[in-house]
Amino acid sequence: MVPGTANAAQQPSRATLTPAEWVTTDSKQPYKSITTGDARVGAWRDDKHHIGKSYFTFDITRFKSTQLFTASLRTPEKAANDCTKPRSTQLWVVKPQDNITWAHQPWEITNVAPTANEDCVSPWVTWNVAEPIKKALERGKTEITFALRIAEQFQGKVEYGRTYDSAAVLSTTFNTPPGVPTDLKVGNGTCDAATNFHYEAQPAVSAIVHDADGTYGLEGRLAFWPVATPEQRVETGPLLAGNGSVSGWFPAGMVVDGGVYAFAARTEDGFVNSAWSAPCQFTADFTPPATTPAISSTTYRENGGPPGDGGQGLAGDFTFDAKGDKDIIAFEYSGLGIGSGRVNADAPGGKATITVTPATDGPVVHLGEGHRQGRSPFAWRGLPVLGAHDRAVRAASALRDRLAARDRVHRQPGRRIAVRLQDRRRRGADRARRRGPHGTQDAVLPRTGPGQARPQGLDRQRRRSEVRHLAAILHGQPTAAVGGRRPVGRARRREAHVHRDAEPDRCRVLRVQGR
């Protein structure tokens, strides 16, 4: 822990304590510890003449290893025997002891001056006890006891006696020094230069900061240097760390291929700074290996096509394979709705398997590699989580401008796509309708209005073009039929059967029938 060098980033913490123990002593009950009722000090009379003192013990363990700024003890008054007499109450720090009685009083060590108060009876009689508490902490004490009494020369005079509330209050402000940052990372990697390789010229770094007073307003600082030449160390200015972490990047121009580099972090709260963390090292590696790794999944097939495999919230395993390239020792991955991470191969050139649960619909998982000799190009594999429901709605919307009729679209299970273009005569307006595993939804498409004639003979080439267009939109969808109405002319029907081609991004028309 070292003194802070920046302006205070955090506000001091506050704590209010009540006594762990309190006791009143009575000269007429010299061997009794009184722990009920009010705290009596000075003299009072009933059928006897009494003299009393009250003692308050506080647990100060909370302030161990902290900076204590203020400590104010408030002893609320409840009554004064005679308001014409000045307040003569004193507060003393006493030597701790058990079983305090009038006959067995603790040794009074330090007299604490009161804060000025002119009221006869006041709930705000306060005492500055910061220094006594600091000294007790320096001596390793975990408790401190204060004695409330009337000054010796007035102690036996009844007119000077007073009654206090036993619920004294100790109010403090303090700062807990921040902890040393932990969980240092270069990218997603560890801090072992023998296994942590990075290909960026300015790798991103991060560390988790700690402060018992909370992280709001906390700051951090980073230091970077080449391991071979530590005199080239570069430190940043204060960096925001209120979210619980501090992050940054290596300075431009410092990292070169093949070098070993390190960074460290410390936490700053504006009052004191933590010690620097242990260094985190990595090796710069800008040369990629020759092999592009493979990725496979039994749940989410590569380019599985609509409506997709698995789905939002459904876990799936992914296996990464370096194909024997011993330059590859780890895999980095990311994707929509799955976050990012890094996993080591089971051996150089080996495999690794992860389980992820997509949090949203998404198209891809990206895979990169960590390795000894650089990285290979990023590979990506399809993770089609998009539901068939959304695909059908998109297909209907795309066809709206192509087919000037009200069309009916329904879907049935199967991998074959059948597209039917049917002309009807003197029938009412149709509605577009889709049925599937996700329910039923209507989509109304525009049609030609009354008196707007279409050509009597729709040429085959145009129909084939429309079929291909629809097949491309509905690629991978279950069976679909599309019907349209022509306001004039003889009923005509044409049908096309479309199958998925061997190439994943194509469909081909096998035959076109018409009558």
UniProtKB/TrEMBL annotation:
Residues 305-314 have a biased composition (Gly residues). Residues 421-437, 487-497 have a biased composition (Basic residues). Residues 293-314, 421-465, 477-502 are annotated as: Disordered. It comes from the Bacteria. This is DNRLRE domain-containing protein. It comes from Lentzea indica. The lineage of its organism: Bacteria, Bacillati, Actinomycetota, Actinomycetes, Pseudonocardiales.
